[in-house]
């Protein structure tokens, strides 16, 4: 991967004469996605796949979120046109949730969040299995041979006692004395998670969550009466959010897992990734003036 940009100040001034269209903006942002994926594959993944020396539970939690982010980024890379706006919105909202979780975990140095993060996997699997078993127990006429594993899990007395003990210890009880079964390891909804992290994070949530949700859920509220180029605008904004979130997440992961020594000039590379879309947009605008495309990475 090449980390340089070929434009002079004069190039930038000439490019500014060209009006940026929604399609041009989306294309430039998409190249930013490509650059992030290339960087992850060439630099981060080989280091992480080689394995950390004595990873802690905290390291494992952070790694699990990184790999989920990488998977979403890989999916977004395959989505680059106006018809893909719904899938792009879904991936970008998932990345926003992971970004909030990553920041919550990293900010808590007590270890409580890490413990809840790992325990939630066991607790949530049991909770959902119990809901499935309860439903089919009261609807015996429906076929249910496909939930035999869930029946075994729910019927395991030792597992039930262990899970209920974790819930009681880590999430407590309500005013009536009933165990609080969390819907998320932090026991907060997405808005509250963002609010806990501060005004910048809550602003990111407010600015993006509702529009992304409109494009994910059924209905026409997010699209009714809009022109074709609005879908390029949707994609461009979602790509922008993904780039902002991912670059910052890579920086956080690098800090936590001590990757600077393993990846030379890591911070300079991340700064480059923040600006790839701007470089590509300059390239596209100059191309509209008849100049050859020259930006690569």
Description of the structure:
- The protein has about 300 residues and is an all-alpha fold.
- The chain has a domain of about 200 residues.
- Helix content is about 70%, strand content about 0%.
- Helix 2 runs parallel beside helix 10 and helix 8 packs antiparallel against helix 9.
Which key phrases capture this entry?
single chain, 297 residues, mainly alpha
Number of strands: 0
- In angstroms, what separates the terminal alpha carbons? 5 Å
Radius of gyration: 23 Å
| Beta-strand content bin | under 5%
CA-based shape: globular
Largest sheet: none
Q: How helix-rich are the residues, as a percent range? A: 55-70%
Number of helices: 11
Class of secondary structure makeup? mainly alpha
> How much is the average pLDDT?
97
List low-confidence stretches: none
Order of helices and strands: HHHHHHHHHHH
Give a nutshell description of this structure.
The protein is an all-alpha fold. 70% of the residues lie in helices and 0% in strands.
Topology:
Elements: H1 9-15, H2 22-50, H3 57-77, H4 85-107, H5 112-137, H6 148-155, H7 157-171, H8 190-197, H9 199-216, H10 229-257, H11 266-288
């Amino acid at each position: 991967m090449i980390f340089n940009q070929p434009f002079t100040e004069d190039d930038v001034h000439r490019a500014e004469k060209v009006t940026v269209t929604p399609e041009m903006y989306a294309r430039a942002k998409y190249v930013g996605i490509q650059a992030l994926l290339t960087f992850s594959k060439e630099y981060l993944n080989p280091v992480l796949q080689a394995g950390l020396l004595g990873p802690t539970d905290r390291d494992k939690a952070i790694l699990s979120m990184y790999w989920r982010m990488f998977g979403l980024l890989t999916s977004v890379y395959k989505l680059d046109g106006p018809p893909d706006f719904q899938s792009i919105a879904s991936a970008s909202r998932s990345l926003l949730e992971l970004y909030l979780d990553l920041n919550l975990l990293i900010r808590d140095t007590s270890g409580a969040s890490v413990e809840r993060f790992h325990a939630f996997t066991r607790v949530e699997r049991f909770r959902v299995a119990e809901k499935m078993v309860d439903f089919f127990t009261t609807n015996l006429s429906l076929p249910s041979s496909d939930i035999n594993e869930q029946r075994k899990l729910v019927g395991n007395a030792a597992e039930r006692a262990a899970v209920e003990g974790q819930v009681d210890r880590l999430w407590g009880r309500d005013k009536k004395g009933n165990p609080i079964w969390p819907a998320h390891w932090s026991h907060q909804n997405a808005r509250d998670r963002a609010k806990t992290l501060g005004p910048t994070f809550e602003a990111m949530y407010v600015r993006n969550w509702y529009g992304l949700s409109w494009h994910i859920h059924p209905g026409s509220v997010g699209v009714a009466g809009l022109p074709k180029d609005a879908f390029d605008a949707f994609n461009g904004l979602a790509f922008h959010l993904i780039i902002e979130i991912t670059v910052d997440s890579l920086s956080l992961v690098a800090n936590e897992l001590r990757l600077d020594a393993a990846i030379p000039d890591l911070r300079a590379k991340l700064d480059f990734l923040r600006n790839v879309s701007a470089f590509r947009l300059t390239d596209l605008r100059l191309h509209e003036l008849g100049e050859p495309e020259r930006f690569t990475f």
